[in-house]
Amino acid sequence: MLSSHGLAAGTSSRGSGRTPAAAFRYARLCSARTQSRSSRSVAAAVAAERLDAQVCVVLGTQWGDEGKGKLVDILAQQYDIVARAQGGANAGHTIYDDAGNKYALHLVPSGILNRDSTCVIGNGVVLHLPGLFEEIENLKKKGVSVEGRLKISDRAHLLFDLHKEIDGLREAELAGAGKQIGTTKRGIGPAYSSKATRNGLRVCDLHKLDSFADKLRKLSMDGEKRFGPGFQYDVDEDIEKYQELAKKVLPYVTDTVEYLHTAYDTGKRILIEGANATMLDVDFGTYPYVTSSNPSIGGIATGLGLPPTKYDAVVGVVKAYTTRVGAGPYPTEIFGDLAERLREIGHEYGTTTGRPRRIGWMDVVALRYSCKINGLTHLNITKLDVLSELEEIKIGVAYKTPDGRMLRSVPADLETLENVEVVYESIPGWKSDISGVRDWKDMPQAAKDYVQRIEDLIGIHCKWIGVGPGRDALVVKPAKGKC
Ligand code: IMP
Ligand code: MG
């Protein structure tokens, strides 16, 4: 693993004189278009000084929606290939291009906005083809072509409308018992279930449409048997649809294991974009309130066939506070007006479902756990500007059980987790607009202290700090001792 060196600080330092709350609210809400004047300078500076890592992995460390897409989009400018390894259209990445156009991506890797990158959808992804082509059409409408720039693994499992149907039916059953997971209803769990049950269909099955139709009929019969008349899926209609979809997708289909290894051996640089996040990992997250793949580092290896010995940097993306969509324990959750305020300032509504996200303080116990599991080499703190109005900012540093035990890590048992009392540290807020800051030395001292405290608690360099949605709204923090 390489250490944390590489990217330069942004070149422009547009310290802002606007301090009133209204001004910095405006600064955050305004479109990235107004910020794009300097976006080339900062993004270009980041791109010019290459991260010293041939393979770099970017992972979500909390409960998703940390803002991974923005860093991937920026780093993509220095990578030849951007690959997705797991998850499906449950992921939602919102990114802005230099002109301030907004893109909400679900299946296509965020690197697609960099016209020089080739994007890979790996074998670990569950792929809903109609959704993929809708995304491709939307990109085309905005002038982004994917022709020749997208490779799809022939081993990836197909996610059908029947999986979405089952997702909804299962959630409805669980709701009766008050145990709903709050999935994105994108069919993710049922698609991974088919994969594990070994009756799933893969992209390579689209080469043989007769046996494809037989397999899909069998899969549909399974759903009918399990759910009876409640299961609404027209298998013949879907088989018909896939005749066309097969023709459309086959030009993109590749043995991506071979492709990635050949690329690696010829010195190509590969950026791997995680989806979802470690606290939603089916093994390490708050099971069963999790997604059905491994968004942590192991899922990257199995989802692409590129082994961990080749990863030079593993960047953990950490939101300056936390959010979670769907049910499940959330020790540092905030309620009431403050949660409402942060939700509005941070636009914390799901990219995929539009649901309001739950809001919480930074949880260092969960973050440390996530760092251990993933072997992170750098951190990217995002959305620091969202905290700018606060008088006081809290950091959850330990969990205490009702019988007084201090827990060093996240417990497996949900009842234990639900009943912990969080021990907080309190840091004064900076109460000024940081959305225009581009250089670490222009950051208010209290904001520096907050970032430094997290870095000290975790022991990993917070190299990039996000201060707004646009590509340019990024500050590069020097390693400790150099600030
Ligand atoms: P599923 O992945 O749709 O099955 O949803 C399972 C749980 O993971 C739900 O709580 C979802 O809200 C959550 N989830 C899945 N993907 C994401 C994501 O990308 N961001 C945030 N939450 C997610
Ligand atoms: Mg998201």
TrEMBL record:
Binds 1 Mg(2+) ion per subunit. GO terms for cellular component: chloroplast. The gene is PURA. It comes from Volvox carteri f. nagariensis. It is an enzyme of class 6 (ligase). It catalyses: IMP + L-aspartate + GTP = N(6)-(1,2-dicarboxyethyl)-AMP + GDP + phosphate + 2 H(+). It is found in: Plastid, Chloroplast. IMP binds at residues 65-68, 90-93, 184, 198, 276, 291, 355. Homodimer. It comes from the Eukaryota. Gene3D superfamilies: Adenylosuccinate Synthetase, subunit A, domain 1, Adenylosuccinate Synthetase, subunit A, domain 2, Adenylosuccinate Synthetase, subunit A, domain 3. Its cofactor is Mg(2+). Mg(2+) binds at residues 65, 92. The keyword Acyltransferase does not apply. Pfam families: Adenylsucc_synt. PROSITE patterns: ADENYLOSUCCIN_SYN_1, ADENYLOSUCCIN_SYN_2. GO terms for biological process: 'de novo' AMP biosynthetic process; IMP metabolic process. Keywords: Chloroplast, GTP-binding, Ligase, Magnesium, Metal-binding, Nucleotide-binding, Plastid, Purine biosynthesis. The active site is at 65 (proton acceptor), 93 (proton donor), 195. Substrate binds at residues 351-357. Pathway: Purine metabolism; AMP biosynthesis via de novo pathway; AMP from IMP: step 1/2. GTP binds at residues 64-70, 92-94, 357, 383-385, 466-468. This is Adenylosuccinate synthetase, chloroplastic. The keyword Calcium does not apply. Belongs to the adenylosuccinate synthetase family. Its main location: plastid. GO terms for molecular function: adenylosuccinate synthase activity; GTP binding; magnesium ion binding. Plays an important role in the de novo pathway and in the salvage pathway of purine nucleotide biosynthesis. Catalyzes the first commited step in the biosynthesis of AMP from IMP.
